[in-house]
Write a structure and sequence with these properties.
The protein is mainly α and 112 residues long. It contains 5 helices and no strands. α3 packs antiparallel against α5. The two termini are 16 Å apart.
Amino acid sequence: MSGALASMKSKASAGVNKAASAVGIKRANTEDSNAMDELSESCPSLTYHQRMIGFCSCFVIGYLVTFMSFNYFIELIEGNPVPFVIIYTLGNIISLFCKFKVLILNTNHKKM
């Protein structure tokens, strides 16, 4: 696993260096302090099944929080929208974060 990760890191850094030199940007060769290295050390290695369980649980929690906001719907109609708006927005942000994580970050990771 670490051999494949090291190979991917070296290919990614070589590609970035090649692109930087093509546009005239001078880069210092800082493979030791690369952001990808720091990220890979701080993130645990999860299987696909574990990632899907995390996504589904976060997605369900987000929509449960969104539906819980309808407890404050009467207050919304009476003129106090703050509790409804805060809880509804929080639920949507949680759900959108899960979608962003699965759709955007994993496709960028595959392209490297």
